[in-house]
Amino acid sequence: MTREAANPMPCSSDIESAAKVEAKRIAASFASIDTFVFDLDNTLYPASSDLWPEIDDRITLFMIRLFGLDSLSLRALQKHYYLRYGTTLRGLMTEHGVDAEVYLSYVHDIDRSSLAPDHTLAAAIAALPGRKLILTNGSRDHALKTARQLGIDHLFEDVFDIIAADFIAKPDEGAYARFFDKHAVEPRRAALFEDIARNLVVPHLRGMTTVLVTPPKGEEREREAWELSHGAEPHVDFVAENLAAFLESIPSR
Ligand SMILES: [Mg+2]
Questions:
Q1: How many domains does the chain have?
Q2: Cα(73) to centroid of ligand 1, in Å?
Q3: Do 136 and 179 fall into the same domain?
């Protein structure tokens, strides 16, 4: 009987050497990275927080007021927009002429007080060797308020939001092209941290180092099945279950 068959659990030395291999891989991949780009929602704050469900509910409420349909039909319509246009907003603008500013201020009018300041994450972001930017499908105002609540707003050079992207949302390649242009980002020297795997496809093609931020095991319940990924896709270079811990593992220069 082989050792594996007798004891299928990895022993501590296996785990240690796997961790060493991963640390080497991180050091090699990040050696030439000088721009660190972060998605906002469910990336800079945990997917287990009640923020995203609150925004999601506000989106549904906006649509109930607009269409007067029952919430189940609206849920289906909202997902259709999200999958077809990247955001519900683009679907509403394209198909119904909805005013973007009215929509954005309505859906982001949420209570952020449940979000605790994240000092560990703040220290890890501050220590990164390069520029830091936020790239979000939400609004700049929402990103700034949320980052302020987390105690990390002062660490970012700027926020590139859905208005700056001319309402072209991730994962559309036009969103990234506008972002690279506006902030003079060289994708091959940049890394993207993001919780939705399909938003990493174009960045990976453009040469960015991609990190999928996943909820810790057992905390995936708030996500739709299509949003979930275990990081096995070829466009995912790294998987981070704990964003701060991952950032701490990037060597300083
Ligand atoms: Mg996100």
A1: 2
A2: 24
A3: yes
Do 81 and 204 lie in a common domain? no
> What's the pLDDT tens digit per position in 50-78?
898 999 889 888 988 998 888 788 888 88
Is 226 a residue whose pLDDT tops 70?
Answer: no
In this prediction the pTM is: 0.88
- Do 38 and 62 fall within a single domain? no
* Shared domain check, 87 and 173: no
Q: Where are the beta strands (DSSP E) in the chain?
A: 35-38, 131-135, 158-160, 190-194, 209-213, 238-240
The SS3 of residue 192 is strand
What are the CA-CA distances from residue 212 to residues 61, 78, 101, 227 (Å)?
30, 24, 30, 11
Do the domain assignments include residue 22? no
Q: Is the pLDDT of residue 251 over 70?
A: yes
pLDDT, greater one: 84 or 163: 163
CATH number for the domain harbouring residue 140: 3.40.50.1000
- Cα–ligand 1 centroid distance for 195 (angstroms): 5
Ligand 1 centroid, distance to 43 Cα (angstroms) = 6
In the predicted structure, residue 2 carries a pLDDT above the cut 60: no
- Going from the Cα of 16 to the center of ligand 1, the distance in angstroms, rounded, reads 31
The three-class DSSP label of residue 197 is helix
Domain that residue 82 falls in: 51-107
